[in-house]
Amino acid sequence: MARHAQPRTSRRSALLRAGLGVTAAGAAVLGAGAAAQAAAPVPLPVDSLTRTDAGAAGAGALDGVAHGVGPLTRLQLDPLANTGVDPLDNGLGTQVADFKPVGTNLVTDHVTKGGAAADLPVVGGLTRGLLP
Questions:
Q1: pTM over cut 0.90
Q2: What is the residue-averaged pLDDT of the chain?
Q3: Domain extents in the chain
């Protein structure tokens, strides 16, 4: 038999009414307590609010940003690095006469081998200089 087709029992409705009554009483008690607490005067330390050290506040904000952004320089840039399906792991090379062979792997190997932003040749120096 489906739940909506079940006959309502007086015990079930009595329990429902009792639960609602307890909930209403609890809300009334908590509401009265909150109102009594809000009516009490709270002294504010006004003199301590006027003396703010701007240098310490700035240093604290800079430290917070540094600790939040710093680990991002060590994250692996290419999520498919060192896998067989990495689309960036392709290179093109050439050799002219007896000169040393030149290829694109010199540039892309840092990323395709699982490097982070701090490992890149040009950008790595900038991230180490600007970020902690």
A1: no
A2: 76
A3: 71-132
